[in-house]
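Subject: mismatched residue count in predicted assembly?

I count 1428 residues in my input, but I want to confirm that the predicted structure covers every chain. Input:
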Amino acid sequence: MIEPNRVPGAGERDGGPRIGVYVCHCGLNIAGKVDVPAVVEFAARLPFVAVAREYKFMCADPGQKLIVDDLREGRINRVVVASCSPLMHELTFRRATALGGVNPFLFQMANIREHVSWVTAEVPDATEKAKALIAGAVRRVALHLPLEQKRVAVHPDTLVVGGGIAGIHAALILADSGHKVYLVEREPTLGGHMAQFDKTFPTLDCAACILTPKMTQVRTHPNIELLSYSEVEKVDGYVGNFTVTVRRKARFVREDLCTGCGECVAVCPITLASEFDEGLGVRKAIYRPFPQAVPGTYTISRRGVPPCQAACSIHQNAQGYVALVAQGKFREALRVILRDNPLPSICGRICTHPCTGACTRALVDEPVNIPAIKRLVAEMAGDFRLPAPERERPQRVAIVGAGPAGLMCAYELRQKGYRTVVFDALPVAGGMMAVGIPAFRMPRDVLRTDVGRLKQIGVELRLNTPIGRDLTLEQLRRDHDAVFVAVGAHVERRLNIPGENLPGVHGGIEFLRRVNLEGPFSLGARVLVIGGGNSALDAARTALRCGATDVRVVYRRTRAEMPADPREVEAAEAEGVQLQFLAAPRAVLGNGRVSALECVRMKLGPPDRSGRPAPEPIAGSEFRLPCDTVVATIGQIPDLEPLGGDGLVRTRWDTLAVDPLTLETGVPGVFAGGDCVTGPDVVVNALSAGRKAAVSIHRYLCGEDLRHGRELEGSYRTEYAIDTQGVPVRRQLRMPSLPPERRRSTFDEVHTGYTPEMGMEEARRCLDCGICCECHQCADVCQAGAIDYSMKDERRELRVGAIVLATGFRAFDARRIARYGYGIYPEVYTALQVERMVNASGPTGGEVRMRDGGKPEAVGIIHCVGSRDENTNRYCSRVCCMYSLKLAHLIRERSGAQVYSFYIDMRTPGKGYEEFYDKLLAEGVHFIRGRVAEVSDWALDPAEQGKLVIRAEDTLLGVVRRVPVDMVVLAVGLEAQADADEVRRRFNVSCGKEGWFQERHPKLAPVSTFTDGVFLAGACQGPKDIPDSVAQAGAAAAEALALVDRGFVELEPNSAFVVEERCSGCKTCVPLCPFSALGFDAVKGKVWLNEALCKGCGTCVAACPSGALQQHLFTDEQIYEEIEGVLSHA
Amino acid sequence: MRYLYYPGCSLKCSGKGYEESLIPSFQALDVQLDELPDWNCCGATAYMSVDQDAALSLALRNLALAQRHGEAGDHPVDLIAPCAGCYLALHKAQHFVAEHAEAAAPALERLARAGLGTGATVRVRHPLDVLVEDVGLARVHARVTQPLGGMRVACYYGCQLVRPYAVFDDPDRPSTMDRLMAALGADPVEWPLRTRCCGGTLTGTIPQVGVRLSELLLQEAARRGAAAVATACPLCQFNLDCNPRHAADGGGHRPLPVLYFTQLLGLAFGIPRRRLGLERLLVPLRSAAAVAAGGPHD
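Triage response: the counts match. Full output below for your records.
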């Protein structure tokens, strides 16, 4: 694709450089500051200079003719022009040089305008600097060599970035010319801001009527490929040959299948503020910004896994079922719960709900009561069944222990079709849930029902079947294909203090088990419970129900460090349990039976390994607590003896050692999890272990890798932040419970549960952190099967020859000017909000309405909000006067309100614009000249009561006015996109200080940029209205077409070259070349360079230690010579 | 945390309650205030227009002393100026030196003759700024032992704190004091007059204008259900607390206590009332309005 250009006639006919120096006046631009005749005189005396001339405008034809003639007539063979920046006219003078019959690169430019006359104060200084620069250029050009320009073919395809009106228009023109166009738009639809408008000024024609047909044209045009909901991530290459990487964001709805029927929207439970309606209306998590959107495909907003779900070790989709409950969809909510958890009634009661600990709502007031909602869902469902396995498998799995870990594992494996048999030594299923947790927290019938459902789907239960003497683990292994050990931790830890063996001292779990299995028994009146966990509180509250009258919990730290759930602590206190903090038992005292506990007082020291302050005894502070019974609930360990010694390894904490990722024990096919591995832990972690084991066992039985991709199992934290600003405080709805005085005498459940109405109300407190809650309602109703939650962002690489940037603007954030009250007073709106309001398809159906639904009687429009303002933006946004006039007209038309328009100057230059202003004046809109000082609700007289008062100086009357209105419209200015700086770097274009993309020349190259092949259209270049944007888009398209239709571009011949005799063969340069243009010739021991691949970046030139790599136009000799020249005059 | 502290004249006389509440409240947050030795008048608000050179010299001398204090400790120094007038005068002096080098030269020479620097590196801070930015509202909240119980407080910033130099808060709608009050358990009143003029010295010179201005503030605060006004400027506090409206309104209005925000800070920290200068208020906090609103009382 590289073809050598013809070399223009040689300039080296007769040896030795003869240089012509041409000094330009640039009118008075240069001559006003530089003494041009003196400079010419100086130049004429420089070595090799044959001719030195001056001219008023060197770039004009007569100026160029001076050069051409001198060359043609043989007076000179090299050229120096001292004038403006090479960016302006280097090309002009190179052409003149070529026209004179000399290679165009035997030319050098000295910039004495931007670098001298414009930036130097005094004439002598400017003149001297001009001389120095010319001296440098003369010495440099003497060393210039004739060079050839490379010609590179241009890729015929084009890229348009931004699907607003400018991008649409440019894309259509390019496509109509027969070129393939990629149109990339980051939002889910085309249309940009124009799609939000109702009418356009000054003709008041309907925006949608002129925009949507063009959008449809884009969709149906055979030459346009629309990449919506996509962003350009990377641009490589150069003019004519760009390689562009586009990230197609996952919509989670397949564009090829979605028919746009909208059934999904009706069932989606998540509602949020609509961006398209500027927050005045709402949309669903699955949405299409507006009905005429192109493409018509829906999009699901997903932020990620919500914090509640991430924190849950079995990843219950709490947001999902909470959202459904908020809508009263209890049956659907149950389906969501059962996806992850077969024991909803149990978990709704006794789970320690790490989900609520992570709940974002806590930042506002209190977390959502997720477990209570789950419990309600299970209760509402009544007699439901678990999903039955879809297939049967022949393998058998034995599960030892019918606690939560064992049951979960049995369920998960049964779902996959395995035959699962659960063995348990106890006469009841449920493990610690059945014998450790009292009935007033976990009613036995609820437990039986949940377990019963597992039996319904074929999980086999063998109770009263301990593993050990009669049935060994070895036997189980022989009879089954895999074994899961989940025997729990049921052996009481001992206090190790004197008197512990006295009658009347019980272990907490032993006590609870006895009550749970055999019923209440008497403990005497005074009971001391040692410990601070949930079990200790369970024991204390059970003791009350056994008839004790004075129950006291003794804990060595303080309330803040108690591991028990604070709600349970609260409930226990309400029932009359007393708490004794900072006390540790020293000895149990008594004569044949317990009579007192000797304790020592503690103080809190520095944190221990658990991060909690370590309690330290206070010497000499011993005291006695008289009692009839002591219940020690200080933890449990598993009973591992019966399992036998073969292969199973124990840790030093008397638990089973397993691989934490897979739960494998040392014995093949034997897995272990739950409390017997972790020590006493909460139910949800046991469930998590059960599931983990099931995954491992399934993979083990299928011969798959056990370790692959399991990092996200178990609890983790999510990273994203939710904006809770402005969420009204609404505290958690407390669950009704039995009165404390009744509770003490009954084992009936303490908390009686939410009513459906309460559950729905509580569920509505959810802040929808993940946005889409993955309830799958949309997938259920989508007949086309277009919903795809597994969709991932995709990257595409495009090859294009030219790029049109049409990335548009963003509206000024009116919150930045607090004195105008946006975000403080509800009746202060931005102009874009009012555009939506007056739009027939907008949130109010085209009516001008206040938030309370009433019609405003007076409306104030404030111009120049974020424009012409020292504190925000100094520029005029150009469109606001006109759109304010339009809105004034529409507001009057729709509501009949008096409209007060506060302006600094009316700016109405444009065809038909001034006439429109005249029309508004005649319509009776009140125009007040003066910048508004503030908007407030401070009423000074009765007429202002309940109104917003606009205070402004009326500069025509010379008075300060207070104008009471019902509604304020802020005519917000236009600003560069928030990410304009990133985008401009990506496309290598420059920005002005306001962030607008910089055109190549403000007058003569308004749509090109300093990067060849990248063009600008629309408001990304600066504020402009629709007609200007469209005109500019047309111009950008035409310039892009001129480039791609020519078919080739000439590249600057600035490639590197190797001076072989200097090359030492060190190869430093080879790996550095980003374009792989360098190689090594092993025979010669030298590097070589492929000129066709070299892009002239200069990396190798800088890196070469021996100066063997040089770059055309920038050889060391040329640069040094230029420096010498400048310095010789300095 | 340690800061250099510039009291200015008000905090030593008419605004003594400000100092009396500031020091123990900051101490409760482990913030030590070291009074700038040998400080003098800040130059005051109006003097700059009367004798620019003299006013500038006064302000700069304080800054230069602070700078020297910092150099002794070899670190840039933060100087806390609680009085909004001093705060502005000191800031203004620094701006003036930076922007009008020539006009400031005589004053700087005068300081140089006394062996003093320019004070340019000193950071002039307001206690509100320090509480919100350095201490952090989370730490303030954690220190609260007597939450203000939803007391309705109108936070009144006055003009000089955020204008013309909006160093730490929005010049149109400052919110640091409101956020501080919320952290103390109070319920700040939403009102637009946070920075409106209190009457300034017009209360003394043209009372019919000055008194009227502060009366408007009190009237609006009351209308919006405030049980107290919190201020951060001795002159604002004086003008509002002394407004004849309190005395004149026999019926209709309850007199509205006007406190320094530091006094409410101290109350929320459980510092005894007698250590917070509350007895100096003309309208006592014990007033019916504050008590009825659930505010703190003896």
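Chain B has a mean pLDDT of 90. Marking this ticket as 'not a bug'.
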